Structure formats: structure tokens, C-alpha cells
């Protein structure tokens, strides 16, 4: 009887160790996945920002002779609109989080 209980305890310990190892592998894989998402998000942000700035410079340069102030104002207004939408979305998401208690 004692031998049977000892064997049962050994099997239980082996099962728990196996589950912990599986969990550790899953957590490690998820950490790698999240790290890659963060890196690629940063790359996209940097190059998207550079593209927007170059586009803005191109528009201003293209209309430099005739309508430089109009072009600069239009580009600035576009950036401000995108910024306002982003700020609104962030505030909305934060308010939803507070309401849901998360």
C-alpha cells in the first residue's frame, strides 16, 4: 500500500514537472513573439514618421513658389487632425478601461 502511494506521488510530481516545463516553453515563446511585435511596431513607427515628414517636405517644396504658406498650413493641419484623432482614441480606450474595471 505504501509503495502504491509512493508511486502515485511520483507520477503526480512527474506530471506537475511536465506541465511546468510546458508552461515555461509557452511563456518563453510568447515573450519572444511579443518582443518581435514590439520591435516591428517600432520599426513601422520610425519609418512611417520619416515617410510622413518627407511627404510634408515634398508638398511644401512642390508649392514653394506659388503657395508655400498654403502648403505648409495644409500639411500642418493634416498632422494636427491625425494627432487629434489619435488623442481622442487613446482617451476613449482609457475611459473604457476605467469603466470596465480592467
Tally of separate helices: 2
CA-to-CA gap between the ends? 50 Å
Class based on secondary structure composition and strand pairing? mainly alpha
Cα shape: elongated
Radius of gyration: 28 Å
Q: Give the overall pLDDT as a whole number.
A: 90
Extended strand count:
0
- The proportion of strand residues reads under 5%
**H/E element string?**
HH
Q: What portion of residues is helical?
A: over 70%
> Low-confidence segments, ≥5 residues, pLDDT <50?
none
**Major sheet characteristics:** none
Polypeptide structure, described:
The chain is elongated. The chain has two helices and no strands. Helix 1 runs antiparallel to helix 2. With 102 residues, it is mainly alpha-helical. The two termini are 50 Å apart.
Short synopsis of the structure:
By secondary structure, the chain is mostly helical. The chain has helices at 2-62, 64-100.
Question: Could you give the topology of this structure?
Answer:
Blueprint: H1 2-62, H2 64-100
Helix pairs in contact: 1-2
Give structural attributes.
mainly alpha; 102 residues; 0% strand
